[in-house]
Amino acid sequence: MKSLHGRLAVMVAAAVAAAVVVMAGAALLTVAALHAHQVQATLATEAQAIAAQPGQWQATPTYGGKPFGPRWQFVDVSGTVTASPTGLLPVTAAASAVAAGTSPPRQEEVRIDGSVHQMLTVPLDGGGAVQVALNQERSRQSLTMLAGLLALVCVAGVAGAAWLGRVVARAGLAPVERLTDAVERVAVTMDLGCPIEVTGTDEVARLGRSVNTMLAAIDTSRRAQRTLVEDAGHELRTPLTSIRTNVELLLRVEQRPAQAHLLPAPDRAELLADLDSQVRELTTLTTELVELSREDATRETPEPVDLADVVAAAVARVRIRAATVKFEFHPVRAMVSGRAGELERMVVNVLDNAAKWSPPGATVTVRVEAAGPLWWELAVDDEGPGIAAADRPHVFDRFYRAPAARALPGSGLGLAIVAQTAAQHGGTATAGAREPHGTTVTIRLPRPA
Q1: What is the reported pLDDT for 264?
Q2: Is 211 exposed, middle or buried (0-12, 13-18, 19+ CB in 10 A)?
Q3: I need a surface site. Which of 25, 104, 131, 182 has the fewest CB within 10 A?
């Protein structure tokens, strides 16, 4: 049976059926044990009464004239029947041993006139024994009827359990079916903004809330992806259009040598330099877009990293391409858990931004220090004009460029990568004013546990 509904119905039916069968069997065994105890007590009482006054009972006729009452007889030491007022009882080897005084009282099952009896043999004072037997036919018939009745109860219980299993399965899985229908509807319509209706506090409600959380996360991711693609298309369109225009102009001159004088050598050199700059800008933009869109599965494995080594490597890289700016850094050992390559790219982006805004001869100061027992703090100070208070909340947004920065090269992704990398390492990135002028970018990373 493949469906969960069917499996649950079978499991409920099997559990109830097993309980019914066990209870019926226990009831039958209990009744049989009580009956056996009652028979044993009756035989013992009768045997003790007869053994106490054997002379009175030797001439007593059948017990009340009832064929199903006790029957008794007396046996001497040799095992010979001396008196049997109610009819002969079999003298078994066990009974002979009791009469001879070599065995304690013995109870056994015997057959008399085709009927099953329970017979108890007890010794008499002075030798011999008295045997008392009780007919079990009526009791056996009663137990047989009880067993049949319990069997019918079991059959009815199993049938009821099967019906109950279907009812319980249908009722128990109704919320799951509603949740399944809702999820399938979302899968068909692709409407991730419409949450699934959830009621109650049970496990199914918890599952529904988890599905809503997952849908919200997928919707957020899809919106972010769409925004990234749209913004990337907008940002790529400008350099590509400029490159295409310049290339077409160069091709036109190459295809028509007679018009070469329209593009003098200095203008050609300036055009080629502009092409080179635009290609570099396009390459940088593409690299930054790839960095922003990387999935966790394709990233490096976190490992213990000395933040001082990462910053030193980043300073060495940026110092080569920003020769007009001085970098001041005094290494301080600061161990973090992270991805060395990503951390270095993050620091390089901060340093590039600081170098871009610092005037020639300015100094970019890099500090690594403890910020309490749980954090390391990396601060980069530049001597540029600073960031306007209105722009500070947005400098880490993707493609955001302050009005003063739009005339300078850049994509507006560098600080966005910084914020993303810091967040992926459990930290934060902030930007603030530096006195008397300039900007301080601060990155906090947690210390390893």
Answers
A1: 73
A2: middle
A3: 104
- Rounded distance between C-alpha atoms, residue 204 and residue 420, angstroms: 35
Count Cβ atoms below 10 Å from residue 1 Cβ, excluding itself. 9
Give the pair of three-digit tokens for residue 323: 């020769």
Cα torsion through 182, 187, 189, 195, rounded to 10: 50
Evaluate whether 143 touches 32 at the Cβ level (below 8 Å): yes
Which residues lie below 8 Å from residue 145, measured CB to CB, with a gap of 6+? none
In angstroms, what CA-CA distances link 436 with 150, 429, 433, 440? 97, 22, 9, 11
Degrees to nearest 5, angle at CA 92 with 83 and 89 = 35
Q: Please compute Rg for the chain using Cα positions.
A: 50
The pTM for the full model equals 0.47
Specify the pLDDT at position 4: 66
Can you tell me which residue has the tokens 């914020």? 419
Phi, psi of 31 (to 5 degrees): -60, -45
* Spatial separation of the C-alpha atoms in residues 399 and 415, rounded to whole Å: 9
Q: Which residues of the chain have pLDDT under 50?
A: 1, 63-68, 296-297, 406-407
The upper half-sphere exposure of residue 399, i.e. CA atoms within 13 Å in the direction of its Cβ, equals 13
